[in-house]
Every structure is written in C-alpha cells, then in structure tokens.
Design a protein that fits this description.
383 residues; alpha/beta; two-stranded parallel ribbon; 11 helices; 17% strand; globular
Length: 383
C-alpha cells in the first residue's frame, strides 16, 4: 500500500476493499460479480437510473458530474483500489481522480483501443501513437470525428495526473458476453435463431479478436490483486478465432436452421452495406483485428474459446436476459443489424450475380456448403 494513502490489507493477500464507479452495466457488472466471488468488499457509485445493483454491494447513489456527490463519496473511503468503468469525459475523470487520490491506493481505468490515432487502419500495440486530448477537456461536439477515442485519451491523462505509478489502464478491443449492451453478438444470435438464409460478410477466414467480458474482468482484478500497474491492450490472441468461427458458433448455439451465405466485400461495398453496425463486427480496415495484447498475456490475461462466449450469451438471452439500454445520446448508442427486407434483397442480388455461372467471376455458385454452414464454396480456413 502507498504510504499515507488508503489504509487496508495488502491486495495480494485478498480481502480487497474495492470501489467501482458504475458497476451495473456489462463490464462493470462482470467486475462486481467477479470481485464478490473472490471475497472482496465492493462499493459501487452510480446514479441508480439504469441497471440493477448486484446483490452484496454497498451501493452509493450519486452523480460523478456533481462535485458534492464526489466529495461525499470520498469520505466513505478508504479503498484499496478503484475501478472506473463509466468515465468518458476527461474533466469528470479528473475530478474523481483528484478527490480519490488520497483515499484510494490504486486506480484502474477502462479505456479503449480507440485511443490509438492509427486504429483501425493499422495494427496497434501499446507503443502506437495515441490521440491528443487535455485531461480537463469537456465532452466536445457529439458528432466530431474520433470523439470517443479522443475523449478516452484525455481520461487516461486525467488518471495519470493523480495516480502516476499507481494506475492500470486497460485498452480493450471488442468485448462480448452475457449482459452485452452494445448489441453485436445478441444480434447475430437472434438472427441465427430466426433461421433461413443469412448474409455472412466477406471472408470466412478473416481473423477476429473479441474478448469475453468475464476474462477482461478477471484480468483487471488480477492486476489490482497483484499490484500490477501499466497500460495494457486487451484482446484475444491473433488467430484465436475467425469470422467463420463466430458464425458457426452462433448457428450451433441457437440450434436453428440458419444457412449462412458468404457474400464478398466488393459486393457489399457496391451496395453500401454499413460496416460494424449493419453487419455487426464486420469491418475491412486492416488494423481492426490487429491489436497486440502480448503485454496483457504476459501479465496473466487468459481468453476462453469464442464458442463458450457465444453459448453463454445465448443461454443468458434465452433465459430472458435483457441488457441495460444505453441512454439517448450515449456515444456508443447505435442500431445494430441489417433490416430483414434489405438482407433478402441483397441475397437475391447476390444470387443473380452468379446466374450465368461465369468462370473467373466472384464465384461459380451462389450457394453451397463450407465448414461454417451454408454459403459460397471457399478454400479451407487458414486460421
């Protein structure tokens, strides 16, 4: 423990007093549940407007944008560690870090791979250039290009301003799993459950690196328990899974009669299919799934198979699980998934493009079977 700072037991022997700013949404909830399972004492701080507190926490109501609420929170310490899963505006993170600096020994910020100025156009590591934003910056115009990543870069600087040498910054890529509130994996699962011919985008062998929310939570807590500090990209290893693996796992988990039809990226571009949202997780930028997380793996990050993440998410959805709905205007609130009529029209157009069965074209048949289910006949997967 830092001298003169939060008093308490050494984190490495357990019994950690943990403060979570947030704690009811997706990753925050996974962190809280895992911490309680490990026997830690957890205080959560949120407004109580969305999500439900996990049983067993000490829930403190307040708004991080209100100085008096933060000051009241700080008086409830000390804590061995704080985790900020909700901070997205630098000045708000700076205010919390300043008030907690003498009440908390270590501070973990959940940032994002979007802080890298070259992502997703190039692969990134922890040494790649980071966007520039001041640690006391306000939210800025909502429609500004790169706002989310730029603001998160400012949040990182805000934490380091008060917890230099005592901070852990996690930069996750795509996180999937139960309680997901972005809607990427839930859309694919529901679409496969509906069955029929499903538009599957691009190359089946495209490598992807989503990481399970529970593995991110476990790594975060491991870092705090071991006293680890530093900045870590958090993603599954390269080669961990392919888009075909994702599609196959969704078909198998839902047990439906879905028949994926692999449609090439040139065709999708010609028809203005939106990447990342209209067909979730599909993106052709070269660096999207080239996130180096070797430092995190060296520090203990372990990633479960993608099929396990998919199956557990489907079980959660099938049991009536509902994600916390992002509030209007939230920086990450988007509609995910292609309109069914548009999907049918695109598949019909794709079929017509093969009608004359011309050698050397996009392919020789519109339908067939590959090892991910139905679709274009393709070479064996390379991953």
């Amino acid at each position: 423990m830092g001298a003169g700072r939060a008093a308490g037991r050494c984190a490495s022997i357990g019994g950690v007093r943990l403060l979570v700013l947030g704690g009811t949404w997706f990753l925050g909830r996974a962190l809280v549940e895992s911490a309680l399972e490990r026997g830690h004492s957890v205080t959560t701080f949120n407004r109580g407007r969305t999500g439900v507190d996990v049983a067993g926490v000490e829930a403190v109501r307040g708004d991080r944008e209100v100085p008096a609420d933060l000051a009241r929170l700080a008086q409830l310490g000390p804590w061995d560690a704080a985790i900020d899963t909700s901070g997205s505006v630098p000045r708000d993170v700076l205010a919390a870090a300043r008030l907690l600096a003498e009440r908390v020994d270590r501070f973990l910020l959940v940032s994002t791979v979007s802080v890298y100025s070259e992502w997703p156009h190039r692969g990134v590591s922890e040494t790649s250039p980071v966007r520039d934003d001041a640690p006391d910056a306000g939210p800025g115009p909502p429609a500004a290009q790169g706002t989310y990543g730029t603001l998160k870069a400012g949040c990182e600087r805000a934490v380091h301003a008060w917890f230099e040498g005592r901070a852990v910054v996690l930069r996750p890529g795509v996180i999937l799993g139960p309680y997901e509130n972005i809607g990427r994996l839930p859309w694919w699962l529901r679409r496969m459950h509906r069955g029929g011919r499903v538009l599957a985008p691009g190359r089946p062998d495209r490598a992807i690196q989503p990481v399970d929310v529970r593995d991110v939570a476990a790594f975060a807590l491991d870092c705090l328990e071991k006293g680890t500090t530093g900045t870590f990209n958090v993603a599954a290893p390269r080669g961990h899974a392919s888009f075909s693996d994702l599609v196959r796992a969704c078909v198998q988990a839902t047990g439906g009669d879905a028949e994926p039809v692999w449609v090439d990226e040139e065709f999708l571009a010609e028809h203005d299919v939106r990447q990342w949202t209209e067909l979730p997780l599909w993106r052709v930028a070269l660096g999207t799934w080239e996130v180096s997380a070797e430092q995190a793996r060296a520090a203990g990050l372990a990633c479960r198979p993608l099929a396990e993440t998919v199956m557990d998410t489907w079980r959660w959805l099938s049991a009536g699980g509902l994600p916390v709905e992002l509030p209007p205007g939230h920086v990450r609130k988007h509609e995910h998934g292609i309109d069914p009529t548009r999907e049918r029209d695109l598949l019909s157009a794709w079929d017509r493009s093969f009608r004359h069965d011309q050698p050397g074209g996009r392919g020789s048949r519109p339908r067939g079977t590959d090892d991910a289910g139905g679709g274009e006949v393709l070479d064996p997967l390379t991953e």
